[in-house]
Amino acid sequence: MSPTGSVTLRLLHTSTFQNSSFVDTEGLGFLEDIEVASLDKHNWNIRFYQPWVHAALPRGDWKALEDMIKIYLHKFTHLINEGATENGVPYPFVAQCRAGCEIYPNRTSRAFIYAAYNGQDLLSFDLDNHTWIPSQDTNISQYVLDVLQNYTALSEMLEVLFNESCIDDLQVMMHYGQAALERQELPVATVFARTPSPAQLLLVCRVTGFYPRPISVAWLRDGQEVPPGPALSTSSILPNADLTYQLRSILAVTPRDGHSYACRVRHRSLGTRSLLVPWGHSEVVLIAGLGAGLLAAVAMAVIVVLWVRRRR
After folding, report:
1. Three state DSSP letters for 65-94
2. What's the rounded Cα separation, in Å, for the pair 137 and 141?
3. Based on the domain organization, do 88 and 205 belong to the same domain?
4. Residues 20 and 151 in one domain
5. First and final C-alpha spacing in the chain
6. Per-residue pLDDT tens digits for 171-183
7. Is the pTM of this model over 0.90?
8. Domain membership of residue 143 as a residue range
C-alpha cells in the first residue's frame, strides 16, 4: 500500500506506430507495484500473473473487460492514425495511456486517464465532468481534443470502464490480494567507503532486499541527521530480480575529520525500530524500539548472575 494507505490499480498502455499499417501495442496492469496482468501483443488477450486474480475476477467479468479493452484499442489505433495523417505527423512515434483508479482509507475513490505522445503529456480525461483537458498547446493536442470531445461513445465507455468497473474490480482484488499487498521484507544495509581522491572520502550506504517500496535512509553525523546538501546524494529506488527494492545513499566527507558517521534506515517492516549501521563497524544495530527489551534482557542477566552466586 502507498504511504497514505490508499490502493491503486493502474493500467499502462503503449502503442508504437511504425507506420500507418503496423502498430506494436503493449499493456500492463499493476495492483500497487504488483504486476497482475499483461496484454498479449498478438491477439490483445489478457494474461494474468497472480493466482488469486482468477478467483478475484470470474471468467465472465474479465472476458467482458477483455472485450472492452479490445474495442478501446481498435478505436484508439484508428483515431491516432487518422490524426497523424491529417496533421502530417512523421512516423514512427509512440502514443501512451496511463489509466486506473484509487481507493482511499475512508472508502472514497477516484479514477484517472492520461494520454502522452512521444513521452510528453498530451491530455487527460476529467471523469467527473466528462471533459478532456489538454496538457500542451500544440496542433496535435488540439486535434485530438476536438475529435475526442465529439467522440461521445468513447467517453461514455471510458466512464463505465474506470468510474465503475475499475472501482468494483479493485475492491475485489484488495480482498483476494490482501496477503500480497501486506507483504513485508526486511531491509539489509551495509556501509563501505570509496576514495576518489586523497582529500575526499565517499561513505556509501547500500540498502537492499526491502518491500514495500517506501523507505527512509539518512546519514547521522555524531548522532545528528545530516541535512540535504551537495555532499549528500541518494539514488532512486530500483527493483531487484526477487521483487524487492534497493537504493544507495552517498555522503562525501573529509578523511579523518574526527566525526562519527552512521546510516539510519526506517521501513514499515521494522515497525517502530530503525536500522543503524555505523561507519567503521560491521555490526548492524536495531534502535528506537528495543529500549524496553534491552533493559529487560539486562535485568534478567543480573538476576541469573545473582542466583548463580547464591547457589555457590
Report:
1. HHHHHHHHHHHHHHHHHHHHHHHCCCCCEE
2. 7
3. no
4. yes
5. 57
6. 999 999 999 999 9
7. no
8. 7-181
